[in-house]
């Protein structure tokens, strides 16, 4: 049977569209499964991802229970924790501490599935990693939640529920929790590896991605902390997601970590996926476009990143740019 030029062209076009769709959706919208307890995984690092890490200063080197101290070179040496314990904090509820009563923290820019630290250099000086060596689970702690990763300097770091654990250099005494909420990205760990919250709760009541009605912008996507999510005009979504925000850009525009597809509310499911960036970090997309938060947004509801440089804009539930000029 003969095929006309027009029908052949239409068929080719259909194949091309399907190929583009498949390329964008070729990676899963969920993150990889968590490592087995005790297994190790490479822990690369983007120094400074997430903002707010340097509050202690690069010269911080307190001597305190638990051995928290600053290191040199690529970051602080991981320090030992001994037998972990559950401590009752009047503001935060049950939090995880080391054998000397020092508070343990987690970092929103890290990932738990797979476990990975994104705190190196000055960040690891302000937030010394907790060594996985000689750690044991005290009363009220599920030892199956304890694991370890291998950091970029070869040291072993403790993970709790997959999340790398840290001290805060400004916590001088047992029971101090001055690292809680720093940069809206650092939180005390609960015994389950979740984030301790004021009022004794844990984690955020929000989904990993949800929708907020902003009085100026209308419906926009926010992350699990209620922080506004943005897109970068110089990124690409087709035929596959590509981020063009690298290096110093990431200090101002931290990537949004992968979100489970069932941990979203009001966000279009089509094109909701994660991908592996050129630096090896996995990043979430909405409608295949990479998404970020803005370090200049200090509290939920802030939209300080809107229109920055004429290239950064909030994201609508369908993944489109909010308030951007016509392309």
Structural features, described:
- This protein has 327 residues and is mainly β.
- The chain has helices at residues 5-24, 122-126, 249-252; strands spanning 42-43, 83-89, 93-97, 105-107, 111-112, 115-116, 136-137, 146-151, 156-160, 163-164, 186-188, 209-214, 218-223, 230-232, 273-276, 282-286, 289-290, 312-314.
- The protein has a 4-stranded mixed β-sheet with strand order 1-8-9-10, with no helix packed on it. A 3-stranded mixed β-sheet has the order 3-2-7, with no helix packed on it.
- The longest helix is centred in the N-terminal third of the chain and has 20 residues, at 5-24.
- The N and C termini lie far apart (43 Å).
List the helices and strands and how they pair.
Blueprint: H1 5-24, E1 42-43, E2 83-89, E3 93-97, E4 105-107, E5 111-112, E6 115-116, H2 122-126, E7 136-137, E8 146-151, E9 156-160, E10 163-164, E11 186-188, E12 209-214, E13 218-223, E14 230-232, H3 249-252, E15 273-276, E16 282-286, E17 289-290, E18 312-314
Parallel strand pairs: 1-8, 2-7
Antiparallel strand pairs: 2-3, 4-11, 5-6, 8-9, 9-10, 12-13, 14-18, 15-16, 16-17
Question: What's the quick description here?
Answer:
Helices cover 9% and strands 21% of the residues.
Helices, by number, come to 3
Classification by helices and strands: mainly beta
Biggest sheet, spatial arrangement of strands: 1-8-9-10
Average pLDDT score: 80
Low-pLDDT stretches = 1-23, 27-75
Task: Give a count of the beta strands, DSSP E runs of length 2 or more.
Answer: 18
Helix share of residues? under 10%
Strand content: 15-25%
Helices and strands, in order, run as HEEEEEEHEEEEEEEEHEEEE
Shape: elongated
Major β-sheet profile: 4 strands, mixed
Gap from first CA to last CA:
43 Å
Radius of gyration: 21 Å
């Amino acid at each position: 049977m003969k095929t006309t030029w027009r029908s052949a062209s239409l068929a080719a076009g259909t194949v091309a569209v399907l190929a583009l769709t498949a390329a964008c959706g070729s990676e899963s919208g969920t993150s990889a499964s968590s490592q087995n307890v005790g297994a190790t995984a490479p822990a690369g690092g983007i120094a400074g991802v997430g903002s707010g890490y340097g509050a202690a200063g690069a010269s911080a080197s307190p001597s305190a229970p638990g051995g928290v101290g600053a290191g040199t070179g690529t970051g602080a040496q991981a320090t030992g924790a001994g037998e972990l314990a559950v401590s009752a904090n009047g503001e935060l509820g049950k939090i995880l501490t080391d054998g000397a009563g020092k508070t343990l923290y987690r970092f929103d820019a890290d990932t738990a599935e797979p476990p990975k630290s994104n705190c190196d250099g000055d960040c690891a000086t302000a937030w010394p990693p907790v060594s996985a060596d000689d750690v044991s689970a005290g009363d009220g702690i599920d030892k199956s939640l304890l694991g370890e990763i291998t950091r970029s300097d070869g040291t072993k770091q403790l993970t709790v529920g997959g999340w790398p654990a840290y001290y805060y250099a400004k916590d001088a005494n047992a029971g101090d929790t001055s690292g809680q909420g720093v940069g809206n990205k650092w939180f005390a760990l609960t015994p389950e590896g979740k984030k301790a919250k004021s009022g004794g709760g844990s984690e955020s009541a929000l989904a990993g991605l949800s929708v907020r009605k902003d009085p100026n912008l209308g419906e926009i996507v926010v992350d699990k902390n209620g922080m506004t999510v943005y897109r970068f005009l110089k990124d690409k979504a087709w035929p596959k997601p590509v981020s063009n925000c690298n290096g110093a850009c990431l200090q101002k525009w931290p990537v949004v970590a992968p979100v489970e597809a069932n941990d979203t509310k009001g966000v279009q499911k089509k094109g909701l996926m994660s991908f592996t960036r050129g630096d090896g970090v996995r990043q979430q997309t909405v409608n295949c476009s990479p998404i970020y938060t803005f370090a200049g947004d200090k509290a939920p509801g802030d939209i300080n990143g809107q229109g920055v440089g004429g290239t950064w804009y909030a994201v609508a539930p369908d993944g489109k740019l909010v308030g951007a000029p016509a392309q």
